[in-house]
Every structure is written in C-alpha cells, then in structure tokens.
Amino acid sequence: MNVKAVRALVTGGARGMGRHFVEAVRDAGGLVAFCDVDPTAVTEASATLGVPGFACDVSREASVQSFYDAASAAIGVPNVLVNNAGITRDGLFMKTHPETGEPIMMDLARWQQVLDVNLTGPFLCARAFAAGSLRAKQPESVMVNISSISRSGNAGQLNYSAAKAGLVADTVVWAKELARYNVRVGAVAPGFIRTPMTEGMKPEALAKVAAGIPLKRLGEPDEIWLAVRFIIECGYFTGRVVEVDGGLVI
Ligand SMILES: NC(=O)c1ccc[n+]([C@@H]2O[C@H](COP(=O)([O-])OP(=O)(O)OC[C@H]3O[C@@H](n4cnc5c(N)ncnc54)[C@H](O)[C@@H]3O)[C@@H](O)[C@H]2O)c1
Fold first, then answer.
1. Where are the alpha helices (DSSP H) in 157-243?
2. CA of 118 to the centre of ligand 1 (A)
3. pLDDT at residue 250 above 80?
4. 120 CB less than 6 Å from ligand 1?
C-alpha cells in the first residue's frame, strides 16, 4: 500500500516515536489520527501537528472503541494501525535485602501495568481495527506492532520482555488468521532509540548503552519509521519482525 493511500491510526502518538510516525504519515500525504493516554499532550500535539488526536487508554476496552469510532469519523475507515503505545516499569524479578537477605519480589502491579498497556492494548486496538476493516471489506489493511529487542529477555525487564515477546507471537497469529481478509501484520523491534522514554535514563547509563552498540549510538525515530513504512508498503510482508537496533544483541 502506498503511504499516500494510508488512513492510519497511531497509538501513543503525542510524543516520542508515535509522534514522529504521525508527522511522517502526514508529510508523506497520508491521512492519520492518533491517540494518547495524556489528554494535555493530545491537545498540544493535535494543535501543533494539525492532525486529529484523541485521549484514550489503550488498555481499556471502551476507551479503545471510542477512539476507533471517533478517528474513523475524522479520517474514514482506517487501513493502517500502528500499535505503538508502550510503557516500562523496570525492576528485578527478585532481589534480596542487603542486610536481612529477605527476598524482595516484583510486585503484581508493576507486572500487570506493563502487560495491560503493552500487550492487552494492542489486542484491543487490533480487534477494533480488524473488525472495522472486515466490515468495510477493505482491499488491504496493515497492522504494525512496535515490539522491542527486549523481547529476547532483558534482565530487569521481565514484564516488558514478556509483553514485547507476546506481541511478536500475536503478530504471527494475526498474520496467519487475517491473511484471508487481506490484512497484513508486521512488527518492528527497535533497539535503543532517542525518545522521552530513553531520555529518562541517567546520562552515564545511556553512555554505557551506546558504547555497547556496534554502531556506537542510539537510533533516531526516523530510522524506525523507515521500517514501519516498509511494512506498510511491501505487499508481500506479513508475520515477521524487522529488527532495527544498530547491531545490538541483548
Ligand atoms: N525508545 C526506545 O528505545 C524503544 C525501544 C524499543 C521499543 N520501544 C517501544 O516503542 C514504543 C514507543 O516508545 P517511545 O520511546 O516513543 O515512548 P514514549 O514514552 O516516548 O512515548 C510513548 C507514548 O505512549 C503513550 N502511552 C502510554 N501509555 C498509554 C496508554 N495506556 N494508552 C495510550 N497511550 C499511552 C505515552 O503517553 C507516550 O506519549 C513503545 O511501545 C516502546 O515500548 C521504544
């Protein structure tokens, strides 16, 4: 599908990579609407980018359906979904108290929040999107899921690794199940990319990360957009992951 023919939904589009995808679709001549959980950020981004934006928590069923309906009214029945919204709540699965040796466990809330946003969110958005595409008998629809290289299992990110690995598994299932309805599905697994998510890390930690990447730097949102665009435009691509990580292997 040529990006000019796109009517795209981008989740988590008010900042970071999502915001860049919104701008890139707009600049390429496609139509785009986005959602974000932060209503103030939605208002700012929508006004600045000149693109319809909606407050929505992707982990909540009713919120997702409202977003889908409002965005469809604004840009027409969407034919591209970018499941981009995501959060981290890093921490070790288990550590011990330095004095008592007592085990300190990852709490359930930290696990659940990440699974809710990063895995249930894409499930709910994919469901609304695919149902709308089937009803409209779209000749072609494309879903792009933003996973992470942490899907291989990154220490300190048990919750995030599980969600991002699950999202890749779901990419394959959706590709297999939905091909008969002309829906293609792909995933992108970025390495460390320069966004507010990584800008929250301590500079020493970021420098250490960059030193361990073969290309010796963080990636840029536009380098991830190139992979998203490839999945949208390549009609023979489905059920696979594009890794864009500067050569970093976790
Ligand atoms: N930055 C990286 O290095 C990196 C690497 C690999 C994968 N990723 C993934 O890429 C995606 C984008 O990351 P980013 O770095 O731009 O993050 P970011 O934190 O800069 O932006 C994420 C956006 O998602 C929104 N969001 C959070 N929870 C939401 C919810 N429940 N409903 C709707 N919107 C919600 C946030 O408000 C924010 O605007 C995420 O899925 C992330 O896991 C990022």
1. 158-178, 196-199, 203-211, 221-233
2. 9
3. no
4. no
- Residue in 156, 167, 179 with CA at minimum distance from that of residue 236: 179
pLDDT digits (tens, 9 = 90+) for 108-155: 999 999 999 999 999 999 999 999 999 999 999 999 999 999 999 999
And the tokens for 249? 């292997």
Q: Which CATH number fits domain 3-244: 3.40.190.10, 3.30.1440.10, 3.40.50.720, 3.20.20.140?
A: 3.40.50.720
Is the Cβ atom of 206 under 6 angstroms away from ligand 1? Answer: no
| Pairing, β 103-105 against β 94-96 | antiparallel
Say what the pLDDT of residue 177 is.
98
User: Residue ranges per domain, the chain?
Assistant: 3-244
Helix, strand, or coil here: 196?
Answer: helix
Q: The whole model's pTM is what?
A: 0.98
Give bridge partners of residue 186 from the DSSP assignment: 144
Position 97 scores a pLDDT of 97
Top mutation candidate among 61, 197, 243 for ligand 1, by most atoms within 8 Å of CB: 197
85 lines ligand 1 (CB under 6 A): yes
Q: Amino acid identity, residue 104?
A: I
pLDDT of 82-117, one tens digit each? 999 999 999 999 999 999 999 999 999 999 999 999
